[in-house]
Amino acid sequence: MSHRIAVIGGDYIGPEVVAEGLKVMEAAGVDIDATHFDLGAQRWQRDGEVLSDETMDELRGYDAIYLGAVGGVPGEIPGGLIERGILLKMRFEFDQYINLRPFLLTEQGIDFQVIRENTEGTYAGEGGFLRKGTPHEIATQGSVNTRHGVERCIRYAFELARSRDRKKLTLVHKTNVLTFAGDLWQRAFDEVAAEYPDVETGYQHIDAACIHFVNDPQQYSVIVTDNLFGDILTDLGGAISGGIGLASSANMNPDRTAPSMFEPVHGSAPDIAGQGKANPTAAILSAAIMLEFLGEADAATRIRAACEDVPAGSTTDIGDEIARRVS
Ligand code: IPM
Ligand code: MN
Q1: Together in a domain, 201 and 82
Q2: Domain residues for 195?
Q3: What is the pLDDT of residues 234-244, one digit of tens each?
Q4: If exposure means fewest CB atoms within 10 Å of the residue's CB, which of 250, 277, 307, 312 is most exposed?
């Protein structure tokens, strides 16, 4: 079966790593019908388009979106414009409420996945200014937590934990201080937990979790957390498990009412673009998650196995070697 994929290479190293991902999927024998979309900071600099509603309507028709990285050179582009206008727009409007980020470093016994709520929290944009620009100005930034949004995310994490060898789920939050949002998360977690007696549960405050990530990451199987904590914790997760060059991610709409989006955690890295220095492994592993989501479990497993010890070399050397291993 052919999969219709919208490919957004994006900026700088984005298209370089995505090309290797496409190469590897082809070598794995998966039939990808790719349509390239020219979006990102450089597109905006050329003609002012970030991501129009017409393009969103087009993207809606694809089986999945495969994205490299978007973002420009600091100072050349208004901060956050591209991130919010492309990444957050897709996450919110396509209801990609699960952000899944796996971390695997077999030789150190690290093998866990973070489920980050991807449509709410402080990312929802609640807040505003009062008396902006005056000495008495006020800025507020709220955190939106709906019972529906929190519960569906927690339920997804329990299902994932149940499917793994180690049936363990850790909730990470800051319930001692964020007493409203934390209370909702904790109650929803406890109530859903009652439906999964086979899954061991635990709770850690976000600050303590940062220490455990460094000192004892082997304790985790699945972690569930809110949008902002998940953003921060998954950068740390990348740093402790082989570096950001290996960190893959998926923005998923498990209900499949709109396409899901698969992208490496790293950014567009303008400083190393065009030099063949970017490690395409994170993009290739993101393609593996996409293939699994599309029902190509066998190809996904082969790609993951081929990435277990990443070969050295340039971007294309690494892509070529992984492609050779999967073919
Ligand atoms: C990520 C990124 C994004 C986020 C930015 C670019 C908006 O850091 O995917 O982790 O904060 O979610
Ligand atoms: Mn991030």
Answers
A1: no
A2: 98-247
A3: 999 999 999 99
A4: 312
